[in-house]
Write a structure and sequence with these properties.
Length: 160
């Protein structure tokens, strides 16, 4: 983890007391532990700051669980939206309207928003959902019911 990443996490820790940050996890995640959202921070990587903001986004949106995979994609994009809002609020404090630095200390540690990276992340979920929803027997896209079960409109229609 770079120094600026560490300082950014430190800043988030101070500004978002309603969640807990835990470093040194195997991967980035956000989990509800004893009524508190814990942001687990994964290994150092170039997008460390953005990934941290994303998990913080889950925590601030109070994402607990999801029953269907479609809602999984919905909460993933919601968490990125929240992450972006947090970052834009910081940027508004660090830069004035002309883009001139007014808080150098803050400007130095803020990550850059990377829309391409975010869309790639969301795409992996879309691909995963697509692969998962394919019927192994006939290849048709299945649908998922509230209980999380997948159903093939073709195969199940003939089996009934
Ligand atoms: Zn997520
Ligand atoms: Zn089928």
């Amino acid at each position: 983890m770079s120094d600026t990443d560490a300082e950014f996490v430190e800043r988030l820790t101070q500004d978002f007391k309603e969640v807990k940050f835990k470093q040194g996890a195997r991967r980035f995640s956000c989990q509800l532990r004893g009524g508190v959202f814990v942001i687990f921070l994964g290994p150092p990587c170039p997008k460390y700051g953005l990934l941290t903001l994303h998990e913080l986004g889950h925590g601030l949106c109070k994402h607990k669980d999801y029953t269907t995979d479609v809602s999984r994609i919905k909460i993933e994009s919601q968490a990125w939206e929240r992450a972006k809002t947090v970052l834009l609020e910081y940027r508004a404090r660090a830069f004035d309207e002309d883009g001139k630095v007014c808080d150098a200390e803050l400007a130095r540690i803020l990550p850059e928003w990377d829309e391409e990276f975010v869309q790639e992340k969301l795409d992996t979920y879309r691909d995963w959902l697509h692969a998962k929803s394919r019927c192994k027997k006939c290849g048709l896209t299945r649908y998922q019911t509230e209980d999380g079960e997948y159903h093939c409109p073709r195969c199940e229609a003939f089996c009934l």
